[in-house]
Amino acid sequence: MFWYRNLIKLSTPIKSKTPITKNLLQASLSHFSTANQPPASAQAQPSGLGPTKPHDKPRVVVLGSGWAGCRLMKGLDPKLYDIVCVSPRNHMVFTPLLASTCVGTLEFRSVAEPIARIQPSISSAPGSYFFLANSTAVDTENHEVHCETVTDGTDTLDPWKFKISYDKLVIASGAQASTFGIHGVKEHAIFLREVHHAQEIRRKLLLNLMLSDVPGLPEEEKRRLLHCVVVGGGPTGVEFSGELSDFIRRDVHERYTHVKDYIHVTLIEANEILSSFDDRLRRYAIKHLTKSGVRLVRGIVKDVKPENLVLTDGSEVPYGLLVWSTGVGPSPFVNSLGLPKSPGGRIGVDEWLRVPTVQDVFSIGDCSGFLESTGKPVLPALAQVAERQGKYLANLLNKICKDGGGHANGAKDMNLGDPFEYKHLGSMATVGRFKALVDLRQSKEAKGISLAGFVSWFIWRSAYLTRVVSWRNRFYVAMNWLTTFVFGRDISRI
User: Fold this and answer.
1) What is the CATH number of domain 188-325+423-485?
2) Region Disordered: which residues (predicted)?
3) Quick one: pLDDT at residue 449?
């Protein structure tokens, strides 16, 4: 019978495969044998990527994966350069929509764009790489970057140190949130700059909602748990407050009816909220936020404690969730570099975004600023500034390589062409409940178009939908907006 013959074949031992399997196993284990390990002295030396040879493609090393670094990598020609990116995250965050992920309007992956999609050569070209690591130092004399791998938690492998030689170096490592030296901010507040910050905000917000529904909880503790405090009245703080108030009115009041009268939002600002916007738009924002239930407080935070913060006038504000959004400042890595600094502590650059005191080093984004000798003001830490700098520098580096100056020290006396010029395209901010602000003036003193209301909200969404990097994420964002409008926000605590 057919099945019986097959059974006999399967039960018959195949002797010829046994030696092959054994040999493969021995070959695999041989890689881990101590006999093949290099001497201890060789292991102690940091490994990495050595200098490129004259006949090789020159290497551009990009430190950072923010707006500036990713726009630069997108514009670089992989036929001209090997591109190496060093960053503690393997994606770019579309920060204008990050506040929407905290309350479930958008999913987290909708605002994260993998670097390999932005510049495919990083995952396919032989000499291009992405390294999940932090930059610890820059040796400008030897054209080297010192790096250290990023590890998760305390039970993982020890960080591995290595070096990368560069022909052109672009520092686009961004900035860190400013705490102004206020005690307790780093320990108790949550910043809103990365996807993991938005995830932490969402988890804590939903946890406080569920804890406050536990029977027997004192009313005072319930009010503290459900008090959400936002410090900083810039676009990020206002947009998060608007999203949070919209979440409370549309979803919390419907699904957490027992605690709906206890939850509220307070926005604390030292000066005026949205100070860069038109006065009429600011008044509209204040009116709309107040109508949505956001309490506006003008004050300066002096101290942050685990369950309350103290203002300079002595008043205490209890909180269950504290979000800190007061601007940015230089990171410790930028401060440690022995490079000239612009006003404010950023890396100083000239009109072509070069660091003028060293060869082949450029800096763009929030970590850089024009030197005083250029006569230009330091540009604001905005996504549109970083994106425009990245686009300009990509075109400049492509031009340098085509003119024969791609390798190290190859562009000393080269004519770089037109310097970088920035023109402000305007500002936008949503305040929740289908309302937004659009200010298209080039400066606060200039004249131009300024809108507020539903039309501005439609412009805001349309503009950001078109600015999302890939069609994949545009589809995700559009579908998230549609499902949220029809079914409400997802309130699962995952």
Assistant:
1) 3.50.50.100
2) 34-57
3) 85
Burial of residue 11 (CB within 10 Å: 0-12, 13-18, 19+) is exposed
Nearest CA among 84, 146, 145, 141 for reference residue 115: 84
The number of angstroms, rounded, from the C-alpha of 27 to the middle of its chain's C-alpha atoms is 43
* Rounded mean pLDDT, 289-308: 94
Nearest residue to 259 via CA among 296, 294, 293, 211: 211
**Angle at alpha carbon of residue 249, lines to 248 and 253, rounded to 5°:** 80
Report the pLDDT value the prediction gives residue 484, as an integer from 0 to 100. Answer: 92
Q: Which two tokens stand for residue 108?
A: 């987290």
Dihedral sign for Cα 103, 107, 110, 114, please: positive
Q: Return the residue matching tokens 């999302």.
A: 468
What are the CA-CA distances from residue 99 to residues 96, 328, 487 (Å)?
Answer: 7, 17, 19
Q: Note the pLDDT of residue 220.
A: 93
Residue spans of alpha helices (H) in 312-432:
332-336, 383-402
First to last CA, the chain: 56
User: For residue 17, is pLDDT > 80?
Assistant: no
Domain limits, CATH 3.50.50.100, in the chain? 46-175+328-401, 188-325+423-485
Tracing tokens 């400008």 back to the chain, one arrives at 140
User: Token match 């999940």: residue?
Assistant: 132
Q: Does domain 46-175+328-401 have CATH number 2.60.120.200?
A: no
Is the distance from CB of 291 to CB of 303 less than 8 angstroms? Answer: no
Most confident of 45-54, 64-73, 405-414: 64-73
What is the rounded distance in angstroms from the CA atom of residue 186 to the CA atom of residue 201? 14
Contact call for residues 386 and 63 (beta carbons, < 8 A) = no
Tens of pLDDT, residue by residue over 42-57, are 444 457 899 999 899 9
Burial 196-230 (b: 16+ CB within 10 A, else e): ebbebbbebbbebbeebeeeeeeeeebbbbbbbbb
The owner of tokens 């500002």 is: 427
Q: Is the pLDDT of residue 9 over 70?
A: no
The number of beta carbons lying within 10 Å of the beta carbon of residue 69 is 28
pLDDT, tens digit, 9 for 90 and up, residues 342-376: 998 999 999 999 999 999 999 999 999 999 999 99
The single-letter DSSP state of residue 414 is: -
- Residue 350 Cα distances to 72, 210, 231, 258, 342, angstroms: 18, 53, 34, 59, 10
Residue 215 gets which letter from DSSP?
T
Confidence tier at 382 by pLDDT (50, 70, 90): very high
